[in-house]
Specification:
- It is a single chain.
- By secondary structure, this protein is an alpha+beta fold.
- It is built from three helices and three strands; from the N terminus they run αβαββα.
- β2 and β3 (59-62) form a beta hairpin.
Length: 80
């Protein structure tokens, strides 16, 4: 499943992410989260990380626990 949202305010980003994590708790799955440059270091320290990717398109793959922890980071925003 791939989700696209049109979130503009920070609260919309967090609510969308926490809702996705809640659904993942029920049905399972792994999220592939694109990260801003330099954020892989932060993602590695979060619970539930399965893998990370650096380079031109940094990303982290992880569980619902990862997604919930990622949403709590101060500079958290969904990429559009």
């Amino acid at each position: 499943m791939r989700a696209v949202t049109f979130c503009n305010r920070p609260v919309e980003h967090v609510v969308t992410t926490l809702l996705t994590a809640a659904v993942m708790d029920v049905i399972g799955g792994v999220v592939d989260a694109e990260l801003r440059e330099g954020r892989v270091r932060v993602a590695v320290a979060l619970p539930g990380v399965v893998a990370t990717r650096t380079g031109p398109w940094p990303a982290a793959s992880g569980s619902a626990d990862f997604l919930s922890a990622w949403a709590q980071q101060l500079s958290f925003r969904l990429l559009k």
